[in-house]
Design brief:
Blueprint lengths: L24 E2 L1 E3 L2 E3 L6 E6 L4 E7 L3 H17 L6 H17 L1 H12 L3 H22 L13 E2 L2 E5 L5 H14 L3 E5 L6 H12 L7 E3 L4 H9 L5 E5 L2 H11 L6 E4 L5 E4 L5 H13 L11 E5 L3 H12 L20 H16 L3 E3 L15 E4 L6 H4 L6 E7 L2 H9 L6 E5 L3 H10 L4 E4 L18 E2 L12 E2 L15
Parallel strand pairs: 1-5, 7-8, 7-10, 8-9, 10-11, 12-13, 12-17, 13-16, 15-16, 17-18
Antiparallel strand pairs: 2-3, 4-5, 6-20, 11-19, 14-15
The protein binds NADP nicotinamide-adenine-dinucleotide phosphate and magnesium ion (MG).
The site of NADP nicotinamide-adenine-dinucleotide phosphate (NAP) has 30 residues, from helix 7 and helix 8.
């Protein structure tokens, strides 16, 4: 980092890698056991900050998925669907407590496998994942209040596919509501980040979760496609790109099997002239550089009222110069490694298009490690709504800045996107915030803050950002169906 811009230096503060022991290879987790893949194929999982191979992960094929689906069906019919909600809840509480005990281990493993800073895995990913299990444990015996009538039923076997940006947290968003509502699960983690899912499998074993209630079939996109094609699954849940979400939707069309889709975004962060500027600068930095910008709801478009543009950009650049980029295991690091070479190439390609199309790029002059995948925090000014960097999801630490003159123009520009996942409004005026929140077409709208999450708060999108909600009471609904036959209630929360 430039000496002139940052006179403060930090001594290294590395977290200990000794907290985790990583096997040289991992099997699939099916029917309560780790078993070698029938496909006989494995692929490396690397640490994107160093390119070191951490382990070899099993590539689940069709035969492996058959076994996993059969095991989930057996567990559903013989055990899980027969347990009253309060008993299922006890397993979820136990899982949450075991995750809590191993929180540091999960944080280190996630940082090594994903490249995100230890500060974020330790303070955000892992605590939120645990919170999802505690929260949903509380719902397991109260489903009659979820909004599907007095006796809602599980679908049966659920197929779930998750991305690499918040590996354990996305697992928790999927698995916790599925189990609380009485479904059993076949889950496919993302190819580059399977390790915390496999540690979670160990936690399920330690919690005594009945065999087959959760099956984890690691693999690549072909494993995901085979899971979607599997006839033995009753309901699907997918988080990932809009492109793959659309393909999944096409594959499931007219099969009658429900799917929830949590897809991409191009969130607008709107700063009005009356906003508390320093607070807004901090929020914009959080909104785009948290998790290297690998965030579906990232505030990747900054909409500034024209008369504060120059002043705001000056402050923003000064703040970005202080961002510490580097070793994700260092507790001082703000911005870690890009998750994969492919993702880095995508970020480079899109930022190059920004320059070619006439936007102006700015980056701090910070040093980057020589190995691994890195990208400096970047802001583009002179951006118009026609530029690719204003329309496409970059999924990296790159902010596109646009301007507006009137509140109406701000809303029109913010809504001028095929996505609709999240947005932010910065203003001192409560009535303006309420008005803007009503006009913005986004599933989540933050006011004078950004990137705040809670297990009790539903999350999900409009338009090409997908459908269905995760979290809160609304997040339970996709995992439940109305009961066909009304039952005689046999006690609060008991399910037959
Ligand atoms: P992705 O390429 O769509 O992959 C997501 C998952 O789907 C991965 O497990 C992937 O496996 C699998 N997959 C790939 N091709 C498939 C296919 N044809 N059929 C079934 N599954 C398939 O997305 P990503 O790059 O991992 O994640 C980034 C995207 O996720 C971004 O667009 C981001 O906005 C979105 N996201 C959305 C939310 C939300 O809540 N809305 C949250 C987080 C992320 P492999 O990894 O093995 O390829
Ligand atoms: Mg990895």
């Amino acid at each position: 980092m430039k000496e002139s811009s940052n006179p403060f230096t930090y001594a290294p503060a590395p977290e200990s890698r000794e907290l985790v022991s990583i096997e040289s290879s991992y099997d699939l987790f099916i029917d309560g056991k780790f078993i070698a893949p029938k496909s006989k194929k494995r692929f490396p999982s690397i640490n994107p900050a160093t390119e070191e191979v951490l382990s070899k992960i099993s590539l689940g094929g069709k035969e492996d998925l058959d076994l996993a689906v059969k095991s989930a069906r057996r567990a559903y019919e013989k055990v899980w669907s027969k347990l009253p909600g309060k008993e299922r809840g006890k397993y979820l509480y136990r899982i949450a407590r075991l995750m809590q005990e191993r929180a540091r281990e999960f944080a280190v493993l996630e940082t090594l496998d994903n490249g995100k800073p230890i500060r974020e895995t330790r303070d955000t990913d892992i605590p939120l994942a645990i919170q999802h299990f505690f929260y949903h444990a509380g719902w397991a015996d109260k489903l009659e209040y979820a909004g599907h009538g007095s006796n809602p039923r599980a679908h049966g076997v659920v197929g779930q596919i998750i991305p690499w940006n918040f590996p354990l947290l996305m697992l928790a968003w999927k698995v916790a509501p599925a189990l609380a509502t009485g479904n059993t699960v076949v889950l496919k983690p993302a190819e580059t980040t399977s390790l915390t899912a496999l540690l979670f499998a160990q936690v399920c074993l330690d919690a005594g979760l009945p065999a087959g209630v959760i099956n984890i079939v690691t693999g690549d996109g072909t494993t995901g496609a085979s899971l979607i094609a599997h006839k033995g699954i009753d309901k699907f849940a997918f988080t990932g790109s809009t492109e793959v979400g659309k393909a999944i939707n096409r594959a499931l069309a007219a099969t009658g099997r429900p799917v929830t889709l949590e897809l991409g975004g191009k969130g607008a962060n709107i700063v009005f002239e009356d906003a508390a500027i320093d607070q807004a600068v901090e929020g914009i930095v959080q909104g785009i550089f948290f998790n290297q910008g690998h965030v579906c709801c990232a505030g990747s478009r900054l909409l500034l009222q024209e008369n504060i543009h120059d002043h705001f950009i000056e402050k923003l650049e000064r703040r970005i110069e202080k961002i510490r980029v580097g070793d994700p295991m260092d507790k001082n690091t703000d911005l870690g490694a890009i998750n994969s070479k492919e993702q880095l190439q995508k970020i480079v390609e899109l930022t190059q298009s920004g320059e070619v199309e006439g936007a102006k790029a700015w980056q701090p002059d910070c040093a980057l490690p020589s190995r691994g995948f890195w990208f400096r925090p970047t802001i583009f000014t002179n951006v118009t709504g026609a530029h690719r960097i204003a329309r496409e999801e970059i999924f990296g630490p790159v902010l596109s800045v646009l301007t507006f003159r009137t509140p109406q123009e701000a809303i029109e520009k913010a809504n001028n996107t095929p996505y609709g996942l999240a947005a932010g409004v910065w203003s001192e005026k409560g009535s303006r915030i309420l008005w803007a929140s009503r006009e913005l077409k986004a599933g989540v709208i933050w006011a004078n803050t950004y990137n705040k999450f809670d297990a009790a708060s539903p999350f999900g999108g409009y338009k090409e950002s997908g459908w269905g909600r995760e979290g809160g009471r609304h997040g339970l609904l996709p995992y439940l169906t109305q009961s066909q036959t009304p039952r005689v209630r046999s006690g609060k929360g008991a399910r037959k």
